[in-house]
Amino acid sequence: MKAIVQEITEKYNLQNAVFQRDNMAFVEVEKKFAIDLVTFLKDYHQFSHFVMMSCVDWIEDGQFQLLYLLHNPALKVDIGIKTYLNRTEPVMQSAHHLWKQIWTYQREIKEAFGIDFPGSPNVDENFVLEGWTEIPHMRRDFDTAAYSEKTYFPREGRFTHDPATYMREKLYPNQPVTAKKNTNE
Amino acid sequence: MNDKINEMLQRSAQNANQSEKSFIRPEDEEREVIAPDGSTIKINPIYDYFSGKKPQEEKPLNGVVEKFLNWARAESIWVLGFGTGCGSIEIPPLMTPRFDAYRFGVQMRATPRQSNAFIISGYLSVKTLKRVIRSYEQMPSPKYVLALGSCTINGGMYYDSYSTINRLDKYIPVDVYIAGCMPRPEALLAGFMKLKELIKEGKAEKANEYARNFDEYKANQKKIIKDWNMPDYNW
Q1: ipTM of the predicted structure?
Q2: Interface test with A, best of B5, B15, B160, B224 (most A CBs within 10 A)
Q3: Which domain CATH number covers B180?
Q4: CATH fold group of domain A2-155
Q5: Is B154–A153 a contact, with Cβ atoms under 8 angstroms apart?
Q6: DSSP letters along B149-198, please?
Q7: What's the whole-model pTM score?
Q8: Please, is A26 exposed, middle or buried when counting C-beta atoms within 10 Å of its C-beta (0-12, 13-18, 19+)?
């Protein structure tokens, strides 16, 4: 596994490879070389099983991250290939020619994040939603609660408790608050 | 070679524009066709197979006749086997010896044309709501709706979801609500008993309410179903 990562690091000039476990690594690659790298791993290193493909919206950096996860059944190792797309121009080279299941992943990502994969079969068809006219629903600037309130006639009288405060009031009313506030938030 | 590619690109661009304009499929669009005898006729596939007429109110009959009919209706509740959400898993146990809904005159049917009760079992996405409306309108009157679970009452745990509705009674009229997340089969049986009570008292007239406020219900339905490519009323 280390040899493979070493080889692709030199070949594709990768920046930071992360070993999650001994048999699992993640590498980051430039957008224009991403599908080349996937093809190289499939054809030369027998990463013949396509596990999944996912997308993350890094709205603070103005980027979408695509992840291709591949598995090598002979060596029993996994490798994840990450690549970043500009949020203003979300177009990615399609990988539908490598595995047929990528058709469906790309169709889903097109609907959920609005990333286009030109040439991918049926990529413009509805995946889950029908007649969706708003911005893609998995983008982080889409406010699902506000959309629901605007669209679906919320019933009055609904309220929620903060679980921590509510439990303290109900179960330990006389106990002083000792727990530190979570500073990560 | 280049000409061919350009032609293909143009065609795909045209197709993309067309799909943006209308959600109605090309084969469902209103158009003129040439009949087998050579004459030109206008067809509108969405409306040709269905009546465009609005539903009519059916006034109850007089006194003892209606009472007898209501008693008969209450004893034969035929439920449409259409599970919309997670609550549909509570329905199969009803038809087992342990709960045995048959003893109350409740049974499941496969098609809307054979049933008179509709259990909306749990959360309802907009995509499913479209199918629910079609099925509900195809059921013969008098028909009853049982709303199962808190999702149908105020959205439940999916109240802030972009794809699930909050209140079912804005889209189709509801006779009985069964609260819970999820309600057990016993609660569902209690709901059936309540429904039978309502029917016997002559209070389960929600199909008439749907006919009376048809325009209002349709407006609410069309507000969220953006790709309305079916007739307004499908009986």
Answers
A1: 0.79
A2: B160
A3: 3.40.50.12280
A4: Beta Polymerase; domain 2 (3.30.460)
A5: no
A6: STHHHH-GGGTT-SSB-S-GGGTS--SEEE-SSSPPHHHHHHHHHHHHHH
A7: 0.82
A8: middle
